[in-house]
Protein: NAD-dependent dehydratase
Organism: Ornatilinea apprima
Amino acid sequence: MSQNHLIFGAGPLAQSVMRALLKRGKTVKMVNRSGKRPADVPAQVEFLAGDAYNPEFTRQAAQGMNVIYQCAQPAYHRWVQDFPALQSSILQAAAASKAKLIVGENLYMYGDTKGQPIHEGLPNAAHTRKGKVRAQMSETLLEAHRAGKVRVVIARGSDFYGPAVLSSTLGERAIKPLLLGKPAEVVGALDLPHTYTYISDFGEALVILGERDEALGQIWHVPNAPTLTQRELVSLFFKEAGLPPRFSVMGKFMMSLGGLFIPEARESLEMMYQFTQPFHVDASKFIRAFGDIATPHEQAIKETLDWYRQRLH
């Protein structure tokens, strides 16, 4: 039986889910506020404009859908004010349509784990504003699942990189200068391990979780290539680019200065703890259940640089 898949959002995670679904021959519909189709979204994908904060709109968009992927989010500096209402609207749509709801999250809800490996069994112990919002939204999702209102799966990825990823610690502020032979801008400690998620693996994980009923009602960490220090990982980018590694390190003081003028930089300050101690994500639960889908760093980096090169000219 043919299945219909709806993706809320059109950013890098949404596009990765789209690619994983198209690879499987699925019918895909995407929604964002503007209705502007990103260059990487092919014409075969139905693209809708609409306000996902409006439950009436999300319910209409979700009619006849089998699986819904929640990849949308407000501007980074508007999370506390706007994110719960956005996700509530999408949750209501999934409940009304009886579709599975597959939600992409980050790791903010765990709070400061003092360098210990981050696994799904850790409590929500966020001490930051955005982490507390993430924790509250996750708990709301799981409560709705337990109450039988909607079938939910949560997939959590670390800081990510890859095609179409711009606003990330390993996004355009690191990669664009690198390709121009300039120092790559890196946030926090260069020589501490930090797990990064390849965006295509994140999208693939969401689709796998949407296919498997045994995943329902649970939290799953996305598999990642082996954790490296930021120096080691970014040096692999320079190696692929055929350039010697050069770094420009952004510490908390420089981030504070940037925060005077840039709301996103100001909001990033409370998350600096992730970059000043070891940050290692354990995805063994997913790997045991569904296999290790992580793309090797070298392949992921090549695909990332190819995408950036095409858009630098």
User: Anything to note?
Assistant: The chain has two domains: 4-160+196-225+280-295, 163-193+227-279+300-311.
